[in-house]
């Protein structure tokens, strides 16, 4: 009886480990993409501000 409980608990731990590994991998893949999008939007805003400043000076 105890052996059955050990196998069941082992399977549950294994499934939890697999799920956490998959979530970690997707988070590592997704995070840099979001950071790049944020940096691109900041740079686009800065370029627009600089272009508006240049138009105002000339």
UniProtKB/TrEMBL annotation:
Superkingdom of the organism of origin: Bacteria
Keyword Membrane attached: yes
Record's keyword terms, sorted: Membrane, Transmembrane, Transmembrane helix
Transmembrane segments: 6-25
Presence of keyword Transmembrane helix: yes
Protein name: DUF4083 domain-containing protein
Organism: Virgibacillus tibetensis
